[in-house]
Amino acid sequence: MLRSGYDKLSQWHETWHNWVVVQVARYRTAMTRTFLSRPVQQVLADGLLEANSTFFDYGCGKGGDVRGLRQLGYDADGWDPAHAPDQPKREASVVNLGYVVNVIEELEERRDAIRQAWRLTGDVLVVAARLDWDVDGSAGRPFKDGLFTKTGTFQKYFSQEELRGWIDATLGQRSVAAAPGIFYVFRSEGAEQRLLARHARAGSRPRLGIAELVYRQHRTQLEPLAEWVRQHRTLPTPADLPTAEGLIDTFGSIRAAFALIRRVTGPAPWTDVILGAKRLSEAKFEANLVVLQPLIDFLTERGRLPRDGELAETPSIVSNFGSVRAAFSLIRRVTGSDRWTEFEARARTDFLVYLALSAFAGRPTFGELPSDLQYDARDLFGSFKEACAQADRLLFAVGKPEAVDLACRASLIGKLTSEALYVHVGGVSRLPAVLRVYAGCAETLTGSVDNATILKMHREKPQVSFLVYPEFDKDPHPSLEASIVARLREFTVSYKDFSSRDNPPILHRKETFVPDDYPGRDKFARLTSQEEKAGLLDQPTIGTRVGWKEALGQAGLALRGHRLVRASGLNDLRVPETRSSSL
Ligand SMILES: C[S@@+](CC[C@H](N)C(=O)[O-])C[C@H]1O[C@@H](n2cnc3c(N)ncnc32)[C@H](O)[C@@H]1O
Predict the structure, then answer these.
(1) Which whole-number Å values give the CA distances from 155 to 25, 102, 115, in the listed order?
(2) Exposed e or buried b for every residue in 301-322, given b needs 16+ CB within 10 A?
(3) Helices (DSSP H) in 25-154: which residue ranges?
(4) Does residue 36 have its Cβ closer than 6 Å to ligand 1?
């Protein structure tokens, strides 16, 4: 009775809203952006905007993305019914429909907006919308298929699967998840395949992905060191550099911090910092490093020699060394052949992972592949047919729980529990191929989850969680801020926010999640050994922030950075030891 009364009341309320009161103030949804929007950042990160690309922002609001891209030198324009109604609607290689469809309450108009944007699209349409996990309980009243907000705007909150389904059904095209709430629709099969293959390659170069990640996080500490070495051509002592203490705390030693700088910036600017007699081939290698670098980069990424026309620098390489092959011989002699065999093996795995995952979107035929991927298939596998056969075997294995479980147990990276294998994102590209495809399947649902720190790969059910620990490097026991869970059997994605919890789950034994060469790993391990000796890690309640604080308090201990100290007087418990380089 009460319920049917309530239903009537809310129906009446909706009608009242629909016909009498609702004046949806869509123009108010546009914000003043100080930085590029998330979908535009994603497009740049995915390399979809090339120097000669054009960009059109359909529903550009106040034009923040257009301005930002113009400042970066791109040919960018936009139109908006409220903020830029007089601008022409223009065709462009990349068209962005960013957070527009979620503000339109009329279903037909919503469909019309995406169709118009698609008509203008040359290469790729980017569609971004608010996701249901963004909903704030107090956000507004139910209205049509969304909410009428307190500021008089409309917001439709999609689930990831709903957004994908709506885009695909409205355009009659198959979209690709780029990130949570962001999808791409490609005009040509080739462009889509190139992106998917690039994703499979990304981060799989040993160390560099991690090094760059960490470099970015510690830039303010590392840049003064780089500047000092640039000027003095030798490493500073701790007394020479104001940031030395922080660097040693973070990286273990100044040498380890410098090794990270060299890895990220490349060896060329620093060759004279490392002294010692050189062989003739080394001298030739170093003298020609500028010419060789593009070839080294190509070989590192593709695991094979470039074919004619693939590398713009080929003519200068040939004029210096006679042939690309001869240049490669020199590189191999100086740097050791093992690393190139390893890069070839990695490139083969990258291609298999890409090809296995391409099955979800309808695998292309050999003729549909862009030429560089055709060369990959031939040079790395002998034939595309052979590559497909191997990729199918891999995909078949991912569907078998016992194969996933075996791969989790066999993995040399990550923390294994009875429930799952936990791996830091910097180590995912070094996992067994089966687990890379397992993670890739989850990403076909979620898109790339930029801020994820750790992947939890479940062993007993097909499920991958992306765990967000923003303070992973700095905090000795970082708190969980959020989790995004992809359920592969149900095809669903869900989100859980832990940020406002008073007692969030925290991590211990951080070294177990990261690969061996992760900067700071030794420091994490030293702390764990101190904590073990103090008997702190045996206690059942330490899994959450409050329990951990209590355990520390009861033992009369505290943390200073990644060191366990006595709470009174903060004396270091550690026996002094030589800090070792982890790089
Ligand atoms: C949340 S804002 C997003 C603006 C911009 N894309 C950004 O990300 O900053 C939504 C914009 O969609 C525009 N809009 C509303 N209805 C539209 C329609 N039918 N077609 C295109 N844009 C529309 C609004 O004027 C508003 O500026």
Answers:
(1) 11, 5, 20
(2) bbbbbbeeeebebbeebeeebe
(3) 38-45, 64-71, 107-119
(4) no
pLDDT, one tens digit per residue, over 315-367 is 999 999 999 999 998 888 776 677 788 889 889 999 999 999 999 888 999 99
- Higher confidence at residue 125 or residue 52? 125
63 or 333: which carries more pLDDT confidence?
63
Q: Determine the length of the chain.
A: 583
**Residue 464 alpha carbon to ligand 1 centre in Å:** 34
| CB of 362 sitting under 6 A from ligand 1 | no
The domains of the chain, with CATH numbers, are 10-187 (3.40.50.150), 208-339 (no CATH), 341-398 (no CATH), 401-497 (no CATH)
Ligand 1 centroid–CA 22 distance in Å is: 18
pLDDT grade, residue 165 (50/70/90)? Answer: very high
Q: Indicate whether residue 64 lines ligand 1 (CB < 6 A).
A: yes
Question: Could you tell which of 33, 36, 100, 112 is best to mutate to test the pocket of ligand 1, judged by most ligand atoms within 8 Å of the CB?
Answer: 100
Q: What pLDDT shows up at residue 30? A: 66
pTM of the model: 0.66
Pocket test for ligand 1, best of 36, 41, 80 (most atoms within 8 A of CB): 80
Does 390 sit in the ligand 1 pocket, CB within 6 Å?
A: no
